[in-house]
Amino acid sequence: MQKNKVENLILGGGLSGLSVAYYLGGDYLILEKENEPGGYCRTIHDNDYVWDYAGHFYHFQTEKYKKLFLSLVDESEIIRQRKNTKIYYRGRMVDYPFQTNIHELEKEEFIECLYDLYFRDKEASYSDFLTMLYAKFGKAITEKFLKPYNEKLYATDLHNLDKDAMGRFFPYADFEQVMKSMGKEVKKTYNDDFMYLKCGTGYFIDRLYEKLDTSRVKLGCEVIYINENEKWVKTNDGMTFYYENLINTIPFNNFLELVGDKESTELSKKLSYNKVLVFNMGFDKPSLKYKNEHWVYYPSKEQNFYRVGFYNNILNQDKLSIYVEIGFPKQKDNVDIANELEKTKRGLKEVGVIDNNMRLMKKNAILMDPAYVHISTEELKLVGKAFGKFEEKQIYMLGRYGRWTYNCMEDCIQLADDLARKLKEK
Ligand SMILES: Cc1cc2nc3c(=O)[nH]c(=O)nc-3n(C[C@H](O)[C@H](O)[C@H](O)COP(=O)(O)OP(=O)(O)OC[C@H]3O[C@@H](n4cnc5c(N)ncnc54)[C@H](O)[C@@H]3O)c2cc1C
Known about the structure:
The chain has helices at 15-24, 63-72, 107-118, 129-154, 175-182, 202-210, 252-259, 262-270, 311-314, 337-350, 377-391, 399-402, 409-425, and strands at 5-11, 28-31, 43-46, 49-52, 78-82, 85-89, 92-95, 193-197, 217-218, 223-227, 232-235, 240-248, 274-283, 295-297, 307-310, 321-329, 360-368, 395-397. Helix 1 (15-24) runs parallel beside helix 13 (409-425) and helix 7 (252-259) packs antiparallel against helix 8 (262-270). The protein folds into three domains: 5-47 and 200-272 and 374-425, FAD/NAD(P)-binding domain; 98-187, protoporphyrinogen ix oxidase, domain 3, CATH 1.10.3110; 274-368, Alpha-Beta Plaits. The two termini are 20 Å apart. The chain has 13 helices and 18 strands. Strand 3 (43-46) and strand 4 form a beta hairpin. It has 426 residues and is an alpha/beta fold. It is globular, with a radius of gyration of 22 Å. It binds flavin-adenine dinucleotide (FAD).
């Protein structure tokens, strides 16, 4: 037996890494580069303010994972909310999703949207996201909200995304559903009802972490090289770990760089994604205008942010506590945080989130890199082929970024459960 050999070596101690360890049990080791577990599901506490890495809210479609969540967190910690989300459109608030709430627009714009929706080219074929938007929703709905908003978020030409790039997270609606919504028959979206935790999303991570054998978790331990043929990895403290199975949850583009051969490096360069800069901001007073909204979408290029979330409205707190999200392309190096903060403060005033009487008491900035993977047909093929090649060498990809996909926390838990079962049955 080689020294430092483990049956299941898990790269990354975010939700996916912790979940797969939870379901596997037995001989595992997690290597996590940060000094605390949780990855993007961590929470920051700054005096009265509770901030995530951009708001992380819980919604479940599978009873099994909902039960797991409820069994690990105290009932008294849970806040249940019926989603209240808006779009800030030309100075007024329109309910989200835009496509089923066009009747809330000014009369001329409403008629324009309806006309374009009805007379859209129903026979048009489409394979990319932007062409799909025009084909399904017509010109006006696409150009007033869907195109500018998603361009701001994804920071890319939407022709580069696959038509199903957002999967079930995109609120599709046909003509009939748009008409029905005017009669107030509201179509459900995936997160109409969601749960949040008084101490932030990281509270669930802490409870999950407690269930693990924490002597099998190495924090502050960054993987710097992966030898896929000899089945070992090297870490920044000079250690070498051999494995039977390698489970990767670190972003696939970074994983490929760590493998480092020509083919992997070339694939890594091809992968497309955005980065999201998140400002968490705590003020001394409540917002006079935004009293109930949980989060609001901003399609206009006049503001640098695409979305603002209101922790205080979710947690039923008094003083304004928000997260602000700004999208950048992957090529953008050295995001100028000070400059973006100034633009954000200006934008928050323009849209009425803050006014001159409010003081910013606390703030922090987080760069999520990667944040949203750009899913395209061509990339799906390349990535799928690479996953197959790695699996032949007992290397398994897991999680939102390990599997290079768009998913939520529940999906990460489910993928981990499925993989653990597969490995146990081997
Ligand atoms: C803006 C935004 C908002 C979101 N909101 C929600 C929401 O409201 N609800 C929801 O359900 N989901 C939400 N998600 C999705 C959710 O964040 C992810 O599904 C989930 O956090 C992914 O967990 P993970 O463990 O797969 O990845 P990560 O959290 O990225 O974990 C990967 C881990 O690997 C570690 N790592 C990286 N490199 C190395 C290395 N070289 N060596 C060792 N360790 C390394 C990292 O430090 C990290 O801990 C959101 C995502 C984004 C981007």
